Amino acid sequence: MKLNKIYSAILLSTLPLTPALAAGLDRSGQSIAAFLQPGNYAEAGISVLDPKVQSKQLKVKDMAEDYYFPSAAIKVQATDKISLGLLYDQPFGAESLFPSNNPVFAVNGEATQVEVETHNLTALIGYQPTENWNFYAGPVWQTVEADINLRGRAYISPKDPSKVLSGYNIKVHEEEAFGWLAGFAYQIPEIALKASVTYRSEIKHKAKSDESYTFAQATPIAPNVIVPAGTTVNLSNASLDATTPQSVNLDFQTGIAANTLAFANIRWVHWDQFAVTPKALFARSGGNNLIDYSDDQWSATVGVGRKFNNQWSGYASVGYDSGAGNPVTTLGPVEGFWSVGLGGQYSPAENYFIQAGVKYFWLGDATARTGTTDVGEFEDNYALGYGLKFGYRF
């Protein structure tokens, strides 16, 4: 079984497009597949996720917001041995809003909500000493920003009612930092075999944040000291340290029969030491983090792609994600997932294609926690992911 280069290039493009809904804040999966395409190549895509995260116990019908994120890449084979690439994605993020009429997560019509957004730009240079080997590395530029508001009984400690975080707000101003990437790939184009290992470093951010806290009710903060309801305390332009985690991606694919390709991806993300600890929240809560995770993330996707004719091909995949520990923060109360995905690709000509895919996620049940207090169970959660991508060879 041998595959010509054009056929191999078309079939390689059927790898799953639909978005990941992964442990911690992981979103894109940080793939570099576009950089490993043969010849000169460019692509642009968009992914949309429609999750439902609910708690019958806490009477929350859905707290997860829909979100979308774009991606783009260009790869140029500058010489027979040197390739250059530029990749854009949004690797980490969160989008959630609790019902404004639920007293567990809302007060006076204001609800708990979170928005975390990152942008990555990765520059790559690859060296191919032979047709089979590719060694690559490059810098990564990353920005991060966030806007988080905490409201409701979930943020009042039952052990110490003076530790009230309901009414807390933090805005993290967009800030840039740098990391790096390195890896290698081995391929046998005639049988569409390709294996790659890619390491991404952690990226340390030193951001500026504005924290504020409004006391929703008269609150004792010390013996004979009561803060009146409506009092607001501000901490502006404070420094905040946050480190996005290091990760390793292992990708493998090979032709297994005429017109048929098998593929697999394994991803590890170092979440177990991740924590975000704003100064005012730390002091007000008696030493708690805003966000933290207890376990590393392991995820895997396996599937099969098939070419039906010169213009049409498709794939099916199955995925698993371990989650990053349980109990988890109330800002993202799920633990991992199982998924199935289907996608198709239409190639009007040999040098360009349109790809679309859909994926269904069974999201893992989780216990939501604030500080050291378990708030309640989130169960029977699911999500639908959609993706669209355009690719062009030049």
CATH class: Mainly Beta
Second rung of CATH, namely the architecture: Beta Barrel
Helical proportion?
under 10%
Rg over C-alpha atoms, rounded to the nearest angstrom: 23 Å
The mean pLDDT is 89
Strand proportion, as a percent range, falls in over 45%
Topology-level CATH name: Porin
Strand order of the largest sheet: 1-2-3-7-8-9-10-15-16-19-20-22-23-26
Count of runs of 4 or more consecutive helical residues: 2
Structural class by sheet pairing and helices: mainly beta
Broad shape? elongated
Describe the model.
The chain is mainly β. It has one domain: Outer membrane protein transport protein (OMPP1/FadL/TodX) (Porin, Beta Barrel), CATH 2.40.160.60. Helices cover about 5% and strands about 60% of the residues. It has two helices and 26 strands. The protein has helices spanning about 5-10, 280-285; strands at about 40-50, 65-75, 80-90, 95, 105, 110, 115-125, 135-150, 170-190, 195-200, 205-215, 220, 225, 230-245, 245-255, 260-270, 275, 290, 295-305, 310-320, 330, 335-350, 350-365, 365-370, 375-380, 380-394. The protein has a 14-stranded antiparallel beta barrel with strand order 1-2-3-7-8-9-10-15-16-19-20-22-23-26. Strand 5 and strand 6 form a beta hairpin. The longest helix is centred in the first third of the chain and has 8 residues, at about 5-10. The two termini are about 25 Å apart.
Question: Which helices and strands, and how do they pair?
Answer:
Elements: H1 5-12, E1 41-52, E2 67-77, E3 82-89, E4 93-97, E5 106-107, E6 110-111, E7 113-127, E8 133-150, E9 168-188, E10 193-200, E11 203-214, E12 219-222, E13 225-227, E14 232-244, E15 247-257, E16 260-269, E17 275-276, H2 279-285, E18 291-292, E19 297-307, E20 312-321, E21 328-329, E22 337-349, E23 352-363, E24 366-370, E25 373-378, E26 381-393
Parallel strand pairs: 21-24
Antiparallel strand pairs: 1-2, 1-26, 2-3, 3-7, 4-7, 5-6, 7-8, 8-9, 9-10, 9-11, 10-15, 11-14, 12-13, 15-16, 16-19, 17-18, 19-20, 20-22, 22-23, 23-26, 24-25
